[in-house]
Amino acid sequence: MNPNTFLKRRKAIESLGVAPARFATIIHPSAVVSLDAKIGINVTLMANVFVSSGVTIGNHCVFLPNTVIAHDSMVGDYCLVGSNITISGNVRIGEGSYIASGTNIRNDIRIGDRSLVGLGSNVVSDVDDRVVVAGNPARMMKSLTEETA
Fold first, then answer.
1. What pLDDT, in 10s, does the model give residues 41-100?
2. What is the rounded CA–CA span in Å between residue 121 and residue 59?
């Protein structure tokens, strides 16, 4: 996972020209996934990831160790989620977003498409599409333009 190239992830995966059935979803034996969670294709859940009830995870996502995704949250396609993250209940993370390690996201927050949340941030308000936020509380640092991808 690289915050300098996360916006290119979708294009790189699509350029492989691989049929969806050829992708594997990998769930570490120590990960816990609720029976009613929905997990997409080509998803990696590393050690000690916890996926709670009602969670939906899109296709082509990666979750590093020790991350919690609480009830009724939704993670869009092509997202990268670092380690030691707490995603509280009813959170919406937009397609192609990057959530850096050590981040906490409060209940009922929306993270926009193709946005980056910086290392160790505490997200307490919604995040727009295509922006970088960081800090405690997380604040907008810059916008991401089409040229960035």
1. 999 999 999 999 999 999 999 999 999 999 999 999 999 999 999 999 999 999 999 999
2. 25
- 């926009």: which residue's tokens? 112
Distance CA 83, CA 65 (A): 5
Distance CA 139, CA 120 (A): 12
Provide the whole-model pTM.
0.91
How many other CB atoms are found less than 10 A from the CB of residue 24?
A: 8
Residues marked active site are found at 71
Cβ–Cβ < 8 Å for 131, 110: no
**CATH code for 6-148?**
2.160.10.10
CA distance 63 to 43: 8
